[in-house]
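Can anyone check this?
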Amino acid sequence: MIRVLIADDHHVVRRGLQFFLKTQKDIEVVGEAKNGAEALRLVEQLQPDIVLMDLVMPEMDGIEATKKIKARWPEVQVLMLTSFSDKDHVLPAIEAGAAGYQLKDIEPDDLVISIRQVMRGESIMHPAATTKLEETLREEENLPHVKNPLTPREMDVLAELTKGKSNREIAASLFVTEKTVKTHISNIFAKLEVQDRTQAALYAVKHGLTEGSGK
């Protein structure tokens, strides 16, 4: 079972999410929080696998709550579920440690898929948020160079990872084993000095590392 905690300041949103998620055989809603501070207390008490986190909430917002959750319980994954797709919200959320970023207009079935993907350690971002973030990051000037350049094969893996593909999908696309993919991803994390797939994907976009890969 995937144990999910819902953190949102709107009662109707929490009720709607709980009603739908309870219909899924592999998902258990273990609690609800009205703000980030309450989410922290419930994470400590309930130890969920995933927190569905709103961004704008009273007492403590979703970004600050995510930072504190990832600092104390790094194994707990945070999936942002919000109405905001602008860079001022997306980038801070990812930098705080969120494994995924979805908008509240997402179809219920797609939300379930996102929860399962985050549970598998994959990174998920809503297309609208991805587009706006990419446009902003590519406009930045004076970007630092990568300290430890990636090999051509690592560049290929990073390009596939940036598309949100799983290890199995990357292995099939590049005609290698999943074990080889895992090794490449580990090396990529170390060289880019990032902690997870989402941060690696954002780093790749920000520094143009996927441009021309596979050539």
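Reply from J.R.: I decoded it. The longest strand covers residues 27-33.
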